[in-house]
Design brief:
Helix 2 crosses helix 3. Helix content is about 25%, strand content about 30%. The chain is an alpha+beta fold and about 300 residues long. It starts with 5 loop residues before the first strand and ends with a strand. The strands form two sheets. Strands 8, 9, 10, 11, 12, 13, 14, 15 and 16 form a nine-stranded mixed β-sheet that branches. Strands 1, 2, 3, 4, 5, 6, 7 and 17 form an eight-stranded antiparallel β-sheet that branches. It folds into two domains: about 120 residues, D-amino Acid Aminotransferase, Chain A, domain 1 (2-Layer Sandwich); about 160 residues, D-amino Acid Aminotransferase, Chain A, domain 2, CATH 3.20.10.10.
Length: about 300
Amino acid sequence: MARGTHLWFNGKIMKVEETKISPFTHALHYGTGAFEGIRAYKQKRGGGAVFRLPDHMKRLHESFKILGFKIPFSVDDLIRGGVEACKANDFEECYLRPIAFLGDGPLGVDPGDNPPVDVAILIWEWGNYLGDQGANEGARLKISSFVRPHVNSLMTKGKISGQYVNSVLAKREAKSMGFDEALLLDPEGYLTEGSGENLFIVIDGIVKTTPLTSILAGITRRTVLNYLQTKKIPVVEARFTRDELWCADEIFLTGTAAEITPIKEVDLRPIGKPGATVGPITAQVKKDYQAIVRGELELPGSANWLTPIR
């Protein structure tokens, strides 16, 4: 993983080693921050472009609003900052991590009405999030012993830093048991999502995904739903249990980091037909998603999805 040598910090490009964050930073103590994950891809016509950059920066603003605070930079400022950070590191294909957080201020649980807010955009090169084998042949999942918090315990529509401790615990548990990723249930026992991905299953040619109740409204998820609608592949958004998951013909995860990752096993139970690798619908979605992000395939409404770096 090659890290960028420069980042965008509070409105200007800086060297990473010159960036200073105080130990009195409120977010360091209480998790009061929000972040995004975004990818840039080399394009068919040359150069690089960031995929759905405005959508991600808008969601960052919304996450911070859920926290009860305001980011001191507009969505347009952050869009320009993301492009500038890519250029400063001379990356055409990379991962962007915008993060906004409460800075050096009062260190009680209540940071006050107008705490300082810092904003950074970091850049690095990131390959297949769940490994090359998982991306190509299918990853192995484990239903976690950790449960997604109730919707009134933590705000599920925000990509809020402190909430990801739940994901860290679930992911580490799954990996310690030899699996690639964790799947989490909600307090009622229904499937929600992975530690950092949305969940799709295929049964008898119908795609099913968990509804926007206790899950993050993933931008890759939204892209896939748009794609499935265009291809007239039937989709249902509904809750489902682990036994329905075990009996699925296909399973795949979606996310900016994971992109489209097929699943070959859940709880040591093989998914799909014996000896099969990636199911046909998953394979089609995976292939065409790569074409979409590289400017090779357009969908209705996708004209502004790619923000050029050069």
